[in-house]
Queue: 4 jobs
Job 1
Amino acid sequence: MKAPRVTLEQWRTLQAVVDHGGFAQAAEALHRSQSSVSYTVARMQEQLGVPLLEISGRKAILTDAGAALLRRSRHLLKEANQLEQLAWNMDQGWEAEVQLVVDAAYPAERLARALGAFMPQSKGCRVQLREEVLSGVEECLLNGSADLAISGISIAGYLPQQLNSIEFIAVAHPQHPLQQLNRSLTHSDLETHLQVVIRDSGRRQPRNEGWLGAEHRWTVTSMSTATKLISQGLGFAWLPQHEIAAQLAQGSLKALPMEQGGQRNAYMFLYANKDKPLGPATRILADLIIQHSHDA
């Protein structure tokens, strides 16, 4: 790759000439001689082959080409400053990245609020967000690919922080045969109908939580797919209330009138990787997840 002919310091000098209104003012701001500043800008123009400034009276005015290049250079210098700041933060023990693995049932709104609060405090730390289902989250924590994990499963050997609960509701389309029975339903009623369940993304010991054991079962990989199938009248399912609030309001889904078990509350838990110390960014993000887990 060909090395740039113009350095960051040269772009910084040009910015100073424009921002401070001339060579003398820029020299004073940069603590350099005026001749040094003038030479730097002249050398830039020679290297680029494009006139950057025009002298009008005692003022240096940007050419059209100079104005366009200066705008781009401001972004370049900002990125360079952020890169240097990130390097300093890392030297102080600040992580470059946090791996966050979340069960797909966890409300995206709560997570978005936590991440939104984390952004201004992140100091350039990236977040790698990954969604898994059931034991898929557990496996990421156990194999070390998660710094933080949100799961509804009790994971042996870890001390979790309890987050708020999620309400699951047994639902079907309003015209589904189960809805037409016009009475309270038992589990025996459900066993003769198609149940849609979410596939456990874990590979070692996948679970079938929420499955009634009936042979007539369809397995999908996401909450959104399950919601669409049920909304089209294809079976029934227990789905998170926050995921189907719009469909319930619109009438494309309706809660099944169960005698018992129609609503289930499941607590989520926040886990941290116990095999390495939590860095400051991970701790901040964990605190924000806990804080915003109780948001409505």
Job 2
Amino acid sequence: MPTVLITGCSSGFGLATARLFLERGWNVVATMRTPRADLLPASQRLRIVALDVLDPESVRQAVAQSGPVDVLVNNAGIGLMGVFESTSMATVRELFDTNLLGAMAMTQAVLPQFRERGAGVIVNVSSATTYKALPMLAAYTASKAALNAWTASLALELEAIGVRARLVLPGRSPETPFGRSAQQRMQAGAPEAYSGFVEKVFAGRSGDGTVTYALDVAEAVWRASTDASAPFSVPAGADAEAMAAHA
């Protein structure tokens, strides 16, 4: 029975992905910074493991506790929406540390066992914002675009040892804490010159009503994990698919 290790399972995409893999008979290692057993159905095929992707010792321990892993899903991430001029560099570094370097650290931790077996899959959850430039998402999109570029190069390397690397690109979702976390990281006191622009951006965020649901992302991760013929980049959600079609 194959095993998937998923980061960031306390809510949103990670939680939905853990549930879907459990339902389909896999062993699931669901990681969270603060483990909560009540979030997922009790199962002998489920392990909930503490993990902070920014802490090297936490990464080492989590991978050691997980045992043999067939698929790594790098889902842990944070959001940011705001005017770049008023975004602190500390916040920018936090974005890159979590969205990019955390995935890199987890990947390095599991690659030795993948290499020894000559098999394994790495699925990195990115963002459909990388399909199209959008305002007030500059630093966030940069962190996800870097994740995309790294994954593309990594995929070419890993072909040599029989390992696949894939991207899943979700659109905007009402079912994740992205909005809350993004707003918490917004810097107050943006220059007055931006005020009208910011109002227009928020007024236009409703779009055409198409969004991404957590199950859309879980299904995309499942496809990227289990279907060797799946494309390198898999859009997740109606809005992401529309953006990919016009990219």
Job 3
Amino acid sequence: MRAVGDRPPVVQLVYSSVENLSDTNRSLLFAGATSLLFWSSFDTLLPTLPQYIADVGGSNQQVGIVMGSLTFGLLLFKPSMGALSDQRGRKLVLGIATSVVAIAPLAYRFVDSIPLLILIRAFHGIAIAAFGTSYAALVADLSPVEKRGQLISSLSMARPIALFIGPALGGFLMSEFGYTTLFFSAGALGLLGLLCVAQIREQRKVSQPKTSAFAFSEFWQLLISPRFRVPFLVFLLGNLVFSSSSIFVGLFIRETQVNLNVGWFFATAAIANLAMRLIFGRVLDLYGRGLFISCGLVLSGLSLAVLSYAQSTLAFLFAALLEGAAAATWPPMLNTLVADRCSSEERGRAYSAALSGLDLGVVLAGYVMGSVAESLGYRGVYSLCAGIAFLTLIFFITLINKDLSSSLRFAIGRQPDFYALETAKKLKIPKN
């Protein structure tokens, strides 16, 4: 066996740097690496899986149905994964997520039946259900309140990086080597993520296991509570329009006969996403969550409006820039807002309730927008989604706080969040 000192200099430098980190920073580092590998695996299939479904004989509507079937696994397992994260630990649930994301891509390659693809896609959804709640809760657990927005935004940068790597890599592997190499590569990335999970050390005490009936009951109680029902609605509608863009943009570009690899659309969005996070990362905790969420929703609506009229490479790339900027603002800050509104003991369940809106957004994007695409075409899809994005902004700025006046002021960064635990403690507001 090679001794530590016999490692190559670069490997030795990396090894020493990691070993010298505190347990918290080391866990955050491996959590970020896990996120990057997890989403890279998932995103290699983002533009390519719809084309695979079409190539095995699926119609536009069937493409939407298969892609939307991801949410069956999400909806069925989200409450239990949130409760399991609180009761048995974030690390266990992250392990489940990375295991599923390593297995599911391999199954796609050996199936050319639409019903079986629906089942595999639903199984793939378990990975998102497990990862979304456990990763968000883990990062929030390790982040001090005064830097929570910055750290959550920074640690969620893995997603836009994966959006840069994954679709471009997936498009390249599919065109140069075929579907077999594509699906096996996606599985290998998931396996590497599982190895990173093994290096994470949790620093919170977990509660005693409770029954699954309790988990589902509390899930619905949290979902309809004043703290989480509006974040749930914004996540739902916001991800509906984002998922519609992601699912159909490759087919839309092909239909318009624009000479643009769909991977470059996602890469452009990812670059804009990263740039926005790097520019505004240090001020995310200074001006309030509401201001950045409002700006992000405006950018999302503008992106979809541009897509609905796009007829050139420049127009598609400009829409991608706006989409990336939107994704850098409202999702991480809404994520932070949820963390502000719950304690560590309930954080997994709170995220499972609020983030289930993301899952329903995928369902509506696949099923509803697939039907819209059949009847109105892709431009009709993006016109409708632009309207939904601006409607979501109206819901947010009028309903997010205790009343209309405080909601409007919070949405422009002029008032603190009424439901945040720190605010509630100062005002002695009972948690509900």
Job 4
Amino acid sequence: PMPAPDAGSETRPLTGAAAGQGGEPVHVPATRPQASSGVETRASVWGTVGRLYFTIPGKGDYICSGNVVTSNNRSVVATARHCGFGEGGTNYRFAPNYNKGNAPYGWWGWRSAGWVTGGGQENDNAFLVLDTPDGRHVQDVVGSTGLGFNWSSNYAHIIGLPADKDYAVWCEGQGYAGPGGQRLMDNCNGLSGGASGGAWIENYQSDGNAIQTGAYSGSYGAAAATSAYGNAAYDVWNGAQNA
């Protein structure tokens, strides 16, 4: 457990969606910040990924990572289910573009959440709906990473904020199917505790534009593992984006 800043109201959680397999590929495009001068055409994942704090009652305060993803309500952060969801997690607060204690866009509280139920590491997905302080929506402020559901295992990057570094780091490699239904990547060191919930992204571009196709779930043996977005994740995201 780590000390965490004040924030976060209580919430009413969304209904979880049971895990499912298969389905047609879906692509949800990225967005740029509303305040953009027009020079930037797309959001950078380095500005949308950030630090997630939360509390598990009776256990303490914890940290994970999250990423602002495209949604109708312009307020959704993708993360991992094991970041307190299903364990009574509360007091969630998120800082996009967080770096060593610096939160340039402030800390955002939450109002609801949804996650995939059932299964293990292969279904470790959750979506958090943030508050809108003073009418601001996080997607308008920093933009959003696009989403891909039911995508295959392509060359990918993982971006998260490990606690021992306290800033965003990444690794890259060829994704492949794991024996438990998760997606794996070899030769990915440094994404230790606190990086959970970070973004597994594909089609990464030099300007930071990318498509998130899963959430980083931790290690599986010597490999890095993610829970790829399938039908259940799509259902949860769809509920979150309209909450």
